[in-house]
Amino acid sequence: MSSTLDRNTLADATSPYLLQHADNPVHWQMWSDATLAAARAANRLILLSIGYAACHWCHVMAHESFEDPATAALMNRLYVNIKVDREERPDIDGIYMTAVQAMGEQGGWPLTVIMTPDGAPIFGGTYFPPEPRWGRPSFRQVLEMVADAWKKDGEKFARSGASLLRRIAAHAELKPGAPIAPGDLAAVTERFLGMMDWEEGGLRGAPKFPNAPIFRFLWGEYARTGRHEAGAVVALMLARMAQGGICDHLGGGFARYATDESWLVPHFEKMLYDNAQLLDLLALAHAAEPDLLLAARAAELVEWLRRDMRARHDPAPDGTLAFAASEDADSEGEEGKFYVWTRDEIASVLGAEMALFEDHYPCPAAGNWEGKLILTRATHPEHPETEARLAALRARLFAAREGRVRPGWDDKILADWNGLAIAALARASAVFARPDWLDLAIAAHGAVTALLGREDGRFDHAIRRGRISASGLLDDQAAMLRATLALYQATGRAAYLDHAERIAAATLAAFGDGQGGLHLTAADAADLPGGIRPRASFDNATPSGAGLFAEGLAILHHLTGSAAHRDAAAALIGAHTGERRALSAFPTLLGAAALLEEGASVVIVGDAADPRFAALHRAALAHFDPAMVVLPVGDATSLPDDHPAHGKSAAEPAAFVCRAQVCSLPVSDPALLRGQISQRAGVA
C-alpha cells in the first residue's frame, strides 16, 4: 500500500473537485481506511485539503501551490496528502471545520488541516498564499514549520490533537431540555429581526448570504402569529436579491452570496441548495402577496434548473434525470468572466434597442465592478408589453453569452440537495400554477430513488457517472423525506406516503441514538477519526438534518394522526433544547416544533376526478402557510382511526381544516378555504 502514497491517485475518483486535482504534482490520496492505515504505518503527518468544485479560492490555492512543482515536492516529502470534496463528505468536513474553528481560525474553504498519523488535527486554516501576505505565512512556511515542530515534540502534538478530537466528540453530545414554548419562538424571532438590514435586506454587513433557513423560520413565524415584520423582512430580501447582481438576469438562478452589502457583486458560483431554498421562499412570499417580480425570478430559476442543471450523464433506468450540484464561479481561470459585460458589448448585441434596455438595466460606461458590468434591474416589472420586449432583449444577450466558455459544472447528484429542490418545485408548481414544474419534481424524485435509494428505505449520498461515492447521511434521509411528503401532498398518490413511512422508519433505525436524538452518520459508517459520530443539529447554508427530519415526522403526524410520529418528533426536538441561549442556531428545528404543536391539516374529500376537488386541492397547496399539511384523500375512511378527519364526508367535494384534533365544518368554496387557513395567524 505504501507505494500508492508516492503517486497521485485522484484519477480514480468520480468527484469533479477531486478530478480537478488529478494532474497536480502533489501525490494526492482519497480519504479511505486504507489511506489512513498507510499513513499510520509510515508514521507520517497527514495534510488534509477540503474544498469543492465551484470554490473560487480553492482554484486560486490550487494554481498557486498545488500546481507548483517545488511546493508539491515539499508536500510529498513531508506529508501524506489527502483531498476531500466537502459536498461528497460533509461529515469529514464538519469534523475538521469544527477543529479549525476550535483553534481560533475562521472557517471556510479551502480548508487546510495538518493531522497526526492517527487523524488528530494539530494545525489548521483556510487559504494560505504562496508568499507571506496579509499577515499570513506562506503555505511552504506552514508546511515546514509544522513538520519541524512535529519532529521536535511529536508526543505533545499527538496528545493535543487527540484531546481536540475528544472535545469534538463531546461537543456532539446533545443537551436535552424542556419543550419549545411560544415564548422561545418569539425570542428567537426578535433576535433575528435585530440582525436585519432594513435597507438592503438580508443580514447586516458583508458578505451577504441568503441564510435561507433563518428566513424560512421567520416566514413560518409570520404565518403562525401574523407578526408583520417577520414576513416583511423575507419579502424585502427577496426583492433586493431579485433586482441585484446576485441574480443571473439572463440565465436565471442566484449566485451563492454577494461580496458587498447591496447584493451587487456576486461570488458567481451557483449552488443547487441555495436555489432550491430560494425557490421555496419565492413561492411562499408570492402566495401571500402576488408579485410579478417574484413570479419572474421563480420562472427563470426553474428554467435554469431544467436547462442547465439536469444531471444528464446519470439517467435513471427509465431515462428520468436528477439535478446536478453546482456551476463554477470561474471560466478561463477568471472569476465571473462568463457573466460580466462591457457597455459596448451589450450595445453591439442590442443595437437600436439599447436605450430601452438601459432604462431598466443600468449600463454605465465605466461599469459597476472592476470596469465591467454586472447586470442589475432598476425597475419593477409592471407592463406586460414592456416585459415582453425586455425578455426578447435578454434572450439576445443570453444567446450571445452562450458563445462564451462556460464555467465548470459539478454534475454529481446529491440526495439531500435534490430533496430540497424537489420539495420546492412541488410548492412552486401549485403557487405559480405550473403543473409542468410538478412533473419535473416527480421525475427528479424517481431518478434519485432509482440511483441512490436502498432497499431498506435509506438513500446513499452521492453518485456520478454510475458510481456511488458516499454513503447516506441524515441530511439525505431528511431532505428526501421532505420531498416525498411534498409529492404526496401535491399528487395524493398513496405510494408516496408509504415511501415516506419507509424512509422515516429506516432513518430512525440507522441513525438513532436510542435516546431520541439522531447522528449525522449511520451506525454502519466506520471511516471517521476516533470513532466520532457527529450530529446534524445546527443550520448552516442548508437546513440541519435533525431539523428537517423533525419537520418530516411532524408532517407525518398531521397526515396520519399517528402518536408514534408525534412522540418521535417531540423526542428529537427535545434532544436539542437544553441550551436555551443557543436556540437561534436551530431555526429549522424550531420551525418543526411550531409545526408539530400548532400546525394544521387540510383534508379534501370527494371524487378526485371532479374539477371542484382539484380546485380545493390547488387552493390548499398554494397557500402561504408552510405549517399547513394537505391530505387529498378523497375517501376519509382511508385515514387512520386516530386521525381527526377519519370518516368525514360531504355531498360534494369539500375540505376540512383540522387543528388540535378538531376539524372544521366542510368547505366547498376555494376562496372560503383560503380564508379559513389564513385565520390561524389572522392574516387574510
UniProtKB/TrEMBL annotation:
Biological-process GO terms, alphabetical: carbohydrate metabolic process
Signal peptide: none
Top-level taxon: Bacteria
Domain Spermatogenesis-associated protein 20-like TRX: from-to ranges: 8-168
Pfam families: Thioredox_DsbH
Transmembrane parts of this sequence: none
The protein's name in its UniProt record: Spermatogenesis-associated protein 20-like TRX domain-containing protein
Organism field: Acidiphilium multivorum (strain DSM 11245 / JCM 8867 / NBRC 100883 / AIU 301)
